[in-house]
Amino acid sequence: MHRRSFLKIAAGTGLAVALPRHARAALPPYKGPFYVMISARGGWDPVYLCDPKPKGTFNRLYDYDPVDPTAVGDIHYADIQLPANLVTDPLSPQYLMKNADFFAKYASKLVVINGLNMQTNNHDRGVVTIWSGRHDGGYPNFAALVAAERAPEHPLAFISGGGYSGTGNLIPVTRLNSVGSFRKLAEPNRTNPADPNSTSTYMHADTFARVAAAQQERLAAFKAKQNLPKIERAAGELYLARGNLDALASVALPDALIDLPNEMGDLERMAQQTQLAMAAFSAGLAVGVNLELGGFDTHANHDTVQVRQLAKLLWGIDYVMSQAAAAGLDSNLIVMVGSDFGRGKGYNGMDAGSGKDHWPVSSAMFLSGNPGLLGGGGRVIGGTTELEQLPIGVDPDTLELDESDDGIVITAPHVHVALREMAGLSESAAAKKFGIITDMLPLFG
């Protein structure tokens, strides 16, 4: 089949097809807002972060008095110190961030939701729920939902470096875990794309262009013969991907990747993925990205491991914001931080090495360099009881704590309905296809 015939058929069936590189118009850059979803994988402990409790059943590490709390504005936090034995390499402590330092820097730009009932103790179900708003699989990650609505044709619209990457088949997911793998994908003709000083290629540029054009024509012919929707869709996605190599090559990747001590390898991966995400955002090719830091499933050694992972996480969030600021994106960026569920209630033993088990009551944090995008920063919504670590309901209009039967306990569906409203997606076709039926709470204004 001739190229012109294929495009005519594609247009007649409503298929959006990117032209080959030498004939395709440049994609209009996506200009934001940009979305970063950060997963604290394994089940974090909000009592050691943004939902502090007096020393006792739930807390063995810090002093907290609700009458005279450790807080920045309205945001209370657990004032945990970081002992030297959390890490072994003398270069590692600089990559840990204390709660006090984090909240002092970002409280005015934060919205904290406490008493978030995840309605599950299961890791897989919790991960799906916090990022899609539904327990069952098949629903898209919120960032993927936005990407599908705002820039579905962009080759890097939704990037996943871990966490829940479901897209509901609305758009392809780009699974890139490192800048090095991206360079190989974006510049397949370079013999050594990892070396910015190397210009050698496998074939002459004109030859490579002819090969690429032939591949696209062959793929177009293959797609035109398919009757099964799944194969047809996959062929179309491959066609689009190959046709966007020029766009991928335009991403200004950092020559120097951040290098952390060996024991901070999980945080280094998150930081390098952040570098890739900011490059894709700056190029106008990406809408949302997943980042992940694991190690929060602390059934043992809770007071050491949970504290260390939270300190890494806060440094990682700070790195996201600092990189966004350096790129001029922080005021157009929305960050969501969440986890599978919480931990508690209380410890599972009496010794210093005991842990905390799964607990469905959790928290979530939202951050932006422009808190107006969140309906205002410096806010805490919801809470938990001091004696039982159970969620306290809120008034559906004012969001004030309401312990009566009229109070609504916040759940992940509430969060995602509010997120969709904030992003202007409530009436979109994708949001209606993946509907969430629950009360609308004005979490973000």
UniProtKB/TrEMBL annotation:
Pfam family of the protein (one): DUF1501
Coiled-coil boundaries: none
Tree of life domain: Bacteria
Protein name: DUF1501 domain-containing protein
